[in-house]
Amino acid sequence: MPPDFRIRLLAPPDYDGVIGICRLVYPAEEPYTPAELDAHRRVFPEGQFVAVAADTGAVAGAHFTLRLRLADYHVDDPWDVLTAGGSFLDHDPAGPTLYGADIMVHPAHQHHGLARVLTDRARDLVRAERLWRMVGASRLPGYAAYAPAMGVEEYVAAVRSGRLSDPALTVHLRDGWAAVRPVRGYLPHDAESAGWAEVIQWVNPDCPPPPELALRADPAGPGG
Ligand SMILES: CC(C)(COP(=O)(O)OP(=O)(O)OC[C@H]1O[C@@H](n2cnc3c(N)ncnc32)[C@H](O)[C@@H]1OP(=O)(O)O)[C@@H](O)C(=O)NCCC(=O)NCCS
């Protein structure tokens, strides 16, 4: 934990701080409304994390999650669909996947490990609830500069190998997420990412997949 900060659950006095960070880090997006932040807390309070300054309580970062049964969705679904328009009202209390809908850190507090500790707190929740995995989609804010010369798969491969560094995907890979595949139109206004994002996941090593997805031995046996 970076000194001078602590992680706790989102509360109404944090809303203005969260909305202020949204405006700074997502200038092209509409920030959350207080009604949406209320909805997050109503459906899944234990999945809404904020990093706050230990002395003033000012919000320095946030990580918002919900539980989903991803079989109900398609891997190409945009953020708006996966989060019910940012309300999280599609939260499924029995969903085996913790969906990382958002992680953001105030520009004045970036590069101090706050994203790392916010991610670790969500990982603790996955372990405590014995969930199967965490899934998210990483923005690719470094990609637009390379898009004229490079396909998105090539860009992600370069970031994975460390040849290129991306301001979001590199952080997520260092925080233990695995890259799955690129998707287009996840955040349609994300010009920095040229409209692309990379689906990422972290599988809980202590918890088996849901029974319907577990590999079963073929009853007919080998060659059957
Ligand atoms: C992506 C984002 C959440 C990362 O937040 P962050 O708190 O800066 O992330 P961390 O500090 O955990 O890690 C970032 C970097 O700081 C480094 N770092 C971590 N702790 C450090 C420390 N104590 N001292 C110096 N550097 C440190 C990390 O190694 C990492 O290095 P890199 O920039 O070379 O990759 C932040 O940049 C952000 O809010 N971006 C805008 C919103 C966004 O795009 N969110 C992601 C949506 S998918």
Please give the structural blueprint.
Elements: E1 5-9, H1 15-25, H2 34-43, E2 48-53, E3 59-68, H3 79-82, E4 97-105, H4 114-128, E5 133-139, H5 152-161, H6 169-174, E6 178-184, E7 196-203
Parallel strand pairs: 4-5
Antiparallel strand pairs: 1-2, 2-3, 3-4, 5-7, 6-7
The protein binds coenzyme A.
The site of coenzyme A has 19 residues, from strand 4, helix 4, strand 5 and helix 6.
Secondary-structure element series: EHHEEHEHEHHEE
The end-to-end span amounts to 54 Å
Overall body shape = globular
Overall mean pLDDT stands at 94
Beta-strand percentage range: 15-25%
Instruction: Bin the helical content.
Output: 25-40%
| CATH fold node name of the largest domain | Aminopeptidase
Give the CATH H-level superfamily of the largest domain. Gcn5-related N-acetyltransferase (GNAT)
If you compute it from the alpha carbons, what radius of gyration comes out, rounded to the nearest whole angstrom? 18 Å
Largest sheet: 7 strands, mixed
Strand arrangement, largest sheet?
1-2-3-4-5-7-6
Describe the structure.
With 224 residues, the chain is an alpha+beta fold. The chain has 6 helices and 7 strands. The protein has helices spanning 15-25, 34-43, 79-82, 114-128, 152-161, 169-174; strands at residues 5-9, 48-53, 59-68, 97-105, 133-139, 178-184, 196-203. Strands 1-2-3-4-5-7-6 form a 7-stranded mixed sheet, with helices on both faces. It is globular. Coenzyme A (COA) binds next to strand 4, helix 4, strand 5 and helix 6. Coenzyme A binds at residues 25, 103-105, 110-116, 138-139, 141, 167-168, 170-171, 174.
